[in-house]
Design goal:
It contains ten helices and twelve strands. It is globular. The chain has helices at about 10-15, 40-45, 75-80, 100-110, 125-130, 160-165, 180, 215-225, 245-255, 265-270, and strands spanning about 5, 20-25, 50-55, 90-95, 115-120, 155, 170-175, 200, 210, 215, 235-240, 260. The strands form three sheets. The protein has a five-stranded parallel sheet with strand order 1-5-4-2-3. A five-stranded parallel sheet has the order 6-12-11-7-8. It has about 280 residues and is of the alpha/beta class. It catalyses: 2-oxo-3-sulfanylpropanoate + [thioredoxin]-dithiol = [thioredoxin]-disulfide + hydrogen sulfide + pyruvate + H(+).
Length: about 280
């Protein structure tokens, strides 16, 4: 392992029976996936023993058309508590093993006030590859009290990102695939321009891992440097809808870099009806 934010399959299996541990199945389909993945069915068919299914959309803002936006504290606290989550638990989130969705849950929970949130390195794919136990059915835990107090300083608004794009006071780093960033392929969501925020950099989230595991610190640091990121300067992460931006924030956190996140991301900035400038190439 390369960070206290990561746990290995071996560590997790050893600690599955810990009273203060909760495991969250955070698998999520990538935008444009066809046919749609039956994620709850996949969870019921096979999940890590004791894992609770965590649907990021159900715990996000239900009042905006933008996907996965942060909910008000009271709503998140209520829904997290229903799942059996408390602030003082050790919380382990896992996805398929590509760092697509678990870092978003890591980021959400930490900044709503959870004290100890970690990501399973390699996700359920690594767990399966090591022939570790799985179980079927749904897991229901007793309701708990989650006390949410989100740290709004961790989030940048579209206006703030626009100002940073012009001033250069922080680096805007986009986690989308290079073709989308350069405007060479259409966005998987309808109604969006192709391209990127002016003066932003591109670090596709797929570059952060190798063989399903987060790269070692030196290799991870070199990945950011190779993509033009100065790790000594402020970073604001973006992506298509705020999910893989959290993968950048997570990876940077393992290197000791505190990055902020633009939650509206390209779905907000690149809206065909919006007036924000778009750059290609």
């Amino acid at each position: 392992m390369t960070s206290s934010y990561l746990v290995s399959p071996h560590w997790l299996e050893k600690h599955l029976q810990d009273d203060n541990l909760i495991v969250l199945d955070c698998r999520k389909a990538k935008p444009g996936t066809t046919p749609p993945r039956p994620l709850e069915e996949e969870y019921r068919d096979a999940h890590i023993p004791g894992a609770v299914y965590f649907d990021v959309d159900k715990l996000s803002d239900q009042t905006t058309p933008l996907p996965h936006m942060l909910a008000e504290d009271a709503y998140f606290a209520r829904e997290a508590g229903k799942l059996g989550i408390r602030n003082d638990q050790t919380i382990v989130a896992y996805d398929d093993g590509d760092f697509f969705s678990a870092p978003r849950i890591w980021w959400m929970l930490r900044h709503y006030g959870a004290k100890d949130v970690r990501v399973l390195d390699g996700g359920i794919n690594a767990w399966r590859a090591e022939d570790r136990p799985l179980e079927q059915g749904e897991v229901s835990r007793p309701p708990q009290t989650f006390r949410a107090a989100f740290d709004r300083s961790q989030v940048k608004s579209v206006k703030e990102v626009s100002e940073l794009s012009q001033s250069g006071e922080a680096q805007i780093v986009d986690a989308r695939a290079a073709g989308r960033f350069r405007g060479e392929v259409p966005e998987p969501r309808p109604g969006l321009h192709s391209g990127h925020i002016p003066n932003s950099l591109n670090v596709p989230f797929t570059l952060l891992s190798a063989d399903g595991r987060l790269k070692k610190p030196d290799a991870l640091k070199q990945t950011f440097i190779d993509q033009g990121v100065d790790l000594e300067k402020p970073v604001v992460a973006s992506c298509g809808s705020g999910v893989t931006a959290a993968a950048l924030v997570f990876a940077l956190a393992t290197l000791g870099v505190d990055a902020k996140l633009y939650d509206g991301a390209w779905t907000e900035w690149g809206d065909l009806n919006a007036q924000w400038p778009v750059e290609k190439g």
